[in-house]
Each structure stands twice: as structure tokens, then as C-alpha cells.
Amino acid sequence: MADALRRFLDEDLGQGDLTSQAVVRGESAKAVVFPREACVLAGGEEAAAVFAHLGLKVARPVADGDRVPPRATVLAIEGDAAAILSGERVALNLLMRLSGIATATRLVVERCRTTNPKIEVAATRKTTPGLRELEKKAVVLGGGHPHRMRLDDAILVKENHIEVAGSVEEAVRRVRERFPDRPFQVEARSRDEALAAVSAGARALLLDNFDPTALAAVAKEIRARHPDVFLEASGGVDPDEAQRYARHVDRVSLGRLTHSVTAIDFALDLADVRRAPRP
Q1: 30 has catalytic annotation
Q2: What is the CATH class of 116-259?
Q3: Model confidence over 18-44: pLDDT tens digits?
Q4: What CATH superfamily is the domain 2-108+262-274?
Q5: Cα–Cα 20 to 30 A to 256, which of 102, 103, 186, 272?
Q6: Which three-class secondary structure state does DSSP give residue 30?
């Protein structure tokens, strides 16, 4: 991610931080970064790398994945004041978004495991372009499963693939013909489609856009016939209702963990400014 972090800095700096160029006259300083609310920390490694890239000394008293109370220092920075101010926004933006993802994920995982201790809570590919690696990492830090990173990671036959093939049976047949030794998963939108996919040879199903009651009935029927089938609930799963799905499946996946998460508010405060001697 080093190249990506440099791009993020270049995007924000442009030709240079005009305000700091005008105001800062050789001063050095110390700074602390902290959340204004409790969270699960993510992005600390990347935020520290932003400041280090600018030639600053950085300490990380808190590890990514740790719970952090409000106003606890997660980064301590020392060096050129202009460099601190130039890196501030990129570092805070990363901490805000990634900690939001990790915090939301941890909450859903903990709720779901009250009903199913073995449940996996997964992200989806509904991520921000350019940030997928970091957002998936934040999900893992929150205790979740990253799911597919790219289209070449795994085979998932979805609604539009079935539409192209003409039926779920034909879509499965084509997958097995092209990749006979690769495991695959099939998205099912109804009871009949789920049963057809299993009959065609699928051993992993993604039950898409079922309400919790309907999903429970379908999962029970499939388990009775094929106890080895891996079941995943996905499609519009509300984080507050995820545990209702978790009771009946092996995995719950939520696009909301990455596509509409609430950021955690972080701040940077300067302290101990050391002014350069005037000529």
C-alpha cells in the first residue's frame, strides 16, 4: 500500500500546503491523534506510515484491532510542524473510515455470536474504489471475514450469470465443465432456485434477499436433505437483524460494513511547539 498512500498524499497536497508554507516558519512540534468516541482501531498502521513518509517520528501506543476509549492517544508524532499539518487530513481520513468499518464489524460479530458462536460475518465487494484492500483489512480487524477480494479469488454464480445461462442448472453445469476441480458458490433468490442449485451439485449457497423467517424455513429444508451444504445469508441484511439470520447459516455477509458505514470522529492536537530562533 505504500504507493497508494503516496497517491493519497499527492491528491491532498497538490503543489504544496499553501497555508502551512505561509504560517509555519521552521517550527517543530509534538502532536497526538485520538478518537472522540469509543471505537475499534483500524488504519493506525497506515496513518503512521503517512506521517513517517513525511519524515516525522511516530509512536503507536495502541494496536490496530484494539478497543479504544474516547480521547485515548493512538498516535504520537514529533517533528516538523508543517509536515504534521500536511499529513493530518489524509491520516485522519483513513483512521475515520477504517475504524468505522472495524467498529461496525465487531458489533455485528458479537451480536451474531450470541446466537451462533461459529458464525462468520463477512464483507462484500461493495467497497470504495482504491480502498478495497484497506477496507477488507478493517473488516478482519473487527473480527469479520474478508470474503472475495477480487473476481479471480473464487467462483460465485450470481443472478445475472443465471440469467445469461438460462437456468441455475445450466449455470452450474458450465462452471463444473470449465473448472471441474474448483469449489463454487451459487446465489439463490428463492426456495426452488436453492433446491435446484443443490440438486445440480452446488455445495455452497448464498441465500439472497430472504427475510429471516423465509430463510429459516429454506435453510431447515436444505439441511435436512444435504447437511454438508455451506449456507450464507446476504442481500440487504440489516446489521440490527443480522443475528436473526446467523442462527440458521454458516455465514452472514453485509455490504453495509463497507458501503455505508459511519466514520469514527478522530482529531489531531498540536502540543509543545518549539519555535525556530529568529534571525
Answers
A1: no
A2: alpha beta
A3: 999 999 988 999 999 999 999 999 999
A4: Quinolinate phosphoribosyl transferase, N-terminal domain (3.90.1170.20)
A5: 186
A6: strand
